[in-house]
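This section describes the prediction task in plain terms. A model, or a person checking by hand, is given the sequence of a single protein chain and must write out its three-dimensional structure as a string of tokens. No templates, partner chains or ligands are provided. The sample shown here is typical of the held-out split.
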Amino acid sequence: MSPKLSPENMIARRARILDAARWCFLNFGFSRTSMGDIAQRAGISRTLLYRGFKDKEDLFMQVFDDWMLSRLPLAMEAVQAPGSRRERLFAVCRRVLLEPWSEMEAAPMSSEFLDVCQGLSPEVAGRHRACLLECLNRVFDDPEVALVFLLALEGLIEDKPRLDVLGGRVRILVDHFTADDA
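The expected answer:
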């Protein structure tokens, strides 16, 4: 029998598994990634992997949830940071869109990753969207403007642009929505 892990070690192992799974999903695709691939990359047995995750779909949803929702406290920090509304709004966009996009852009199966996120986990995507909308609402202090900005932001990734193109689009959008602040 193996020794019981401390809570800190359990958290570290879970993070290692989620990182390994995200890498596999982004590089091999959802359908071509096996639980064995993830276990091998995480340096654990498949049996141990199945103790923490029901199946590949469950693991994928937890990867997406962890990856996206973990970015939201950083976005909230950006909302509350000193600076102009333009600076804070761009910092929120950088945290929740540009930084994850930079990791996805380099991965061969990133487009499939986005599609699977929406298909397998609409509730996680919905939670992420609601939290992001809350951040934007705090920046704009106007729910309608925050919603329109979010809808526009979502539209910027429809054609899955390169990071530099997306960054330019975000800059244009932020400048447009904060033009009155100048």
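For orientation: The chain has a mean pLDDT of 91.
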